Amino acid sequence: QVQLVESGGGLVQTGGSLRLSCAASGRTFDNYNMGWFRQAPGKEREFVASISWSDSSTYYLNSVKGRFTISKDNAENTVYLQMNSLQPKDTAVYYCAARFVRAGIWPYWGRGTQVTVSS
């Protein structure tokens, strides 16, 4: 049973930084992609970033490129999202997700962690 547990959210001022963590367990993730998504109030959930567990290739939402960095720690089975230069528009619940590399959907999700950026 795959389990994803996010942590690290909180309240930060505009221009500040936060680092989100996603602790993954329940299987080996060698052939998986790990992703971060977010959902703001009244909006649909959107993709933020992803990383391949096998080759560490990354993808980002255009609006976070240069500000957010996704990374992983193989030994700790943990994925991180370093968020710098945060803006009020980044306010959302951030979710960690996992999928098999050739899957079209993301079947595994964490419960989310709230990020609030004050102006």
The largest pleated sheet is described as:
7 strands, mixed
Compressed to H and E, one letter per element, the order equals EEEEEEEEEEE
How many strand elements? 11
Instruction: Give average pLDDT, whole number.
Output: 96
User: What structural class results from the helix and strand content?
Assistant: mainly beta
Labels describing this entry:
about 120 residues, mainly beta, 7-stranded mixed β-sheet, 4-stranded antiparallel β-sheet, about 0% helix
Describe this entry's structure for a reader.
It is built from no helices and 11 strands. With 119 residues, the chain is mostly beta strands. The strands form 2 sheets. Strands 2, 4, 5, 6, 9, 10 and 11 form a 7-stranded mixed sheet that branches. Strands 1-3-8-7 form a 4-stranded antiparallel sheet, with no helix packed on it. β9 and β10 form a beta hairpin. The mean pLDDT is 96.
Present the secondary structure layout:
Blueprint (H helix, E strand, L loop, with lengths): L2 E5 L2 E4 L4 E8 L6 E8 L6 E7 L5 E3 L7 E6 L4 E6 L8 E9 L7 E2 L3 E6 L1
Parallel strand pairs: 2-11
Antiparallel strand pairs: 1-3, 3-8, 4-5, 4-9, 5-6, 7-8, 9-10, 9-11
In brief:
By secondary structure, the protein is an all-beta fold. It has strands spanning 3-7, 10-13, 18-25, 32-39, 46-52, 58-60, 68-73, 78-83, 92-100, 108-109, 113-118.
